[in-house]
Amino acid sequence: MINNILAWLTDGAHWQGYDGITRRLLEHVAYSVTALLIAALIAIPLGLYVGHTGRGRFLVVNAVGAARAIPSLGLLFLAFFWLGPRLNGDIAFLAPAGLVLVVLAIPPILSGAYAGVEGVDPDARDAAKGMGMRGPQVLRHVELPCALPLIMSGIRSGMLQVIATATIAAVLGLGGLGRFLIDGLATQDFPQTASGAILVAVLALVVDLALALVQRSVVSRGLTGRYGTVQTFDAGTGAEPPAPALQPSGSEEPPQSGG
Amino acid sequence: MTWLRDHLGDVLDLAVQHIYLAGVPLILGLLIALPLGWLARRYRALYPILIIGTGLLYTIPSLALFIMLPLLLPIRVLDPTNVLIAMTIYTVALLVRTVADGLGAVPDAVNQSATAMGYKRGRRFVSVELPLAVPVISAGLRVAAVSNVSIVSVAALIGVQQLGSLFTDGFSRAFVEPILVGVVACVLLALIFDGVILGATFLATPWLRAGKASG
Predict the structure, then answer these.
(1) Is A242 in Cβ contact with B61 (below 8 Å)?
(2) Is B90 in Cβ contact with A243 (below 8 Å)?
C-alpha cells in the first residue's frame, strides 16, 4: 500500500496539468492566504479595539467560544444552499466556500488580538501614559508590539483552520488539494486519497513552520528574551514554561484545532 | 420541521454515535495526557519535546488524519475506531500542555508543605497537585470537548455515521433541513459536553469554595 502511494506521488504525470499536484497545491495556498488576509483585516483591528477599550469584551469572548462549536462541514453546506442559488458560474461554489473560510478564521485571530492587548502589563501601559502618549500612541507603540506573540498564535490557529476547511470544501467543487481526497474517496482510489492526505498534512506543517519563523522575526526580542549576541539569561535553552494562574482567567487563547 | 418529526429516532441514533465518537476520546485523551503532562513537568528537558511533538500532531487537518491513520495502524478508514483514535490524538495534543501548565501552576509552597507532611511523590501527585490543577485542566478539557464535537462531524466524508452524516445526506439530496438540524444538534451537544465538564469541575474543586463557606 505504501508502495502504491509512493508510486502515485512520484509519478511525474500527477504533478502536471489542470488536475496536477502543483496546480492544486497553489490553489490551496491561494485560497488559504486570501481568506486569512481578509479575516485578519477584519479581526485584528476589531480585536485591538476591544482589547484597548474593553468595549464589547463579553460579546467577543462568547462569540469566539460559540464559533468553535459550529461544525465547519455543516456551515459549508448551509452557505452553499444559501448563497449558491443567488449566484452563477464558478462564483456559485467559490463564494460560499470563501465566505466560510473567512468566517472560521476570524474567531482565533480576534481572540488572539484582544487577549494580547488585554494581557499587556498594566505597568507598561501606565509608563507609556506617564511619558505623555495618547491612547492611539499607547496602542501603536506599546500594546500592539506586546500583543504580537498572541496575535501571531491566533493567526497560526486561523491558518490551520483555513487549510483544514479548504480541504473539506472540495466537496462543494472547490479546487485545492482537497480534490485528491474527495475525488479519491468517491472513486475508491486509495493511493490518490492517501497521497492527498499526506500532501495536505505536509502543507499544514510547512505553513505553520513558516508562520512560526515570521513570529520569531516580528516579535520583539525584549519580549522573548532572545538576544543575538548578548546572553542575558538562559536564552534559547528552554526557558521556564509559562505558568498560568491557578484560576483560568479566560483571557488566554487556547490552541485551536485544525478542524 | 416535519422532517425532524419524522426522523427524530434517526437523529437521536446519530447523536448517540456522535457522543460516543467525541466523548470516549476525551476520557482516553485525558488519561494519556495526565502522565505525559506530569513527565513534562518532572523532566524539564522533555517539556519542549512533548509540547512541540503534540503541537505538530495538532496541525494535521482532520480529514487527512482520518485517511492517514489506517496506513500506520491495522484499521480500515471506515472503521469507527479510526475516528476514535484520531480524536484521541487531537485530545492528547491539546491536553498535554494544559496538564503540564496546570501542574506547574501549583505553588511550590504547597508542594513543599505536602512533602513535609510525609507525602511521597505518587500520593502527593494524586491528592495534592492534581486536585489543585483541576481548574486549568478543566479549561483545556472544555476546549477539547467543543472542538471534538465539531471535528467528529467531518468523519461523515469517510462514511462513518454520526450527526455529520446529516450534512452529507442533506447535501446529496439538496435538502437543507437535515443540515440545519445537524448543525443545531452539534452545537447543543457541544453545550451539553461543556455543561457536564463544568459540573464535574465544580464537584472536583470543593477547595475553591471552602473559604467562602466558612468565612
Answers:
(1) no
(2) no
- DSSP code string of A74-136: HHHHHHHHHHGGG--TTHHHHHHHHHHHHHHHHHHHHHHHHHHHHTS-HHHHHHHHHTT--HH
Per the structure, how many domains does chain A have? Answer: 1
**Nearest chain A residue to B49, by CA:** A238
In a domain, A34, yes or no: yes
Q: What ipTM was estimated for this complex?
A: 0.87
Residue A126 lies in a domain: yes
Cell of A196: 492527498
A169 belongs to a structural domain: yes
CATH of the domain at A38: 1.10.3720.10
Structural domain for A38, as ranges: 18-223
B172 and A172 Cβ atoms separated by less than 8 Å: no
Task: Flag whether A171 is in a domain.
Answer: yes
Q: Per residue of chain B (215 residues), what is the pLDDT tens digit?
A: 788 888 889 999 999 999 999 999 999 999 999 999 999 988 888 988 998 888 889 899 999 999 999 988 888 888 999 999 999 999 999 999 999 999 988 999 999 999 999 999 889 998 999 999 999 999 999 999 999 999 999 999 999 999 999 999 999 998 999 999 999 999 999 999 999 999 999 999 888 888 765 54
Write the class of the CATH domain B2-205: mainly alpha
